[in-house]
Fold this protein.
Amino acid sequence: MLNRAIPSLLLCASLAAQAQAPQAQPKPAGKVEVLWLGQAAIRLTTPGGKVIVIDPWLTKNPKTPAQYKDLDALGKVDLLLVTHAHGDHLGDAAALSKKNNAPLYGPAGLCQSLITLGELPANLAIRMNKSGTVTPLGPGIRITQVHAEHSSELVWHNPATDKDETHVGGEPVGFILELENGFRLYHMGDTGLFGDMKMIGERYHPDLLLIPIGGHFVMDPKDAAYATRELLKPKFALPIHYGTIPQLAGTPAEYQQALGDSKVKVFAIQPGEKVTF
């Protein structure tokens, strides 16, 4: 009798354990909104309504629409990401961080310089490094730094001497963002081609690339198309970092042509326009 009862007891215990086990929460079905503001500046609104601003060169950017030169036009900003120290990426990041009491994440050397130079307090300039993953907006949004092939000196104007100084800017990076609904985007910052783009594609499977195509300082349209088609293989691509100055002569049309018969959908939008996924 005892032996026959054991399977029934085990079954009951199993069912009870299943009933008590935490159920996986469904991912939110909200949309991802990407607003391009010229050069590499992006305002990202996540499915859960969080606002992340990346590389906010706005007030002195000739391609930023006039309304967004007023930093209040961005609305409440929850988080800032900066890929490297060059002025056309760092831009207004410190001002936005202080205005919104929003943390700024960037290369470790850059954030340390911002603290040392008195541009930001340590609680707002958050040091991290490549391959590090952080969740400052909660576990539903994961942000990872990855490599970028570029430079990153910080040119800082010293108000005491009225002269420019060069300071440590850390190593340039890109950012992988995985959002609440599982959508993944890769803001590549400024970069040339590098072989580990293939590894980044295989490891993180980005849905959307924010990819520089202007050439001279970054990939030109042909290199950007190669990275897209052969190495990263996203579903979508949004060209950035072109047309702001004469040297950045690459165009979305050239990028699209270089992609050939690739099935990647390219969004060639104007500064101030947005796409929703």
Q: What stands out?
A: The longest strand covers residues 142-147. The CA atoms of residues 159 and 215 lie 34 Å apart. The mean pLDDT is 92.
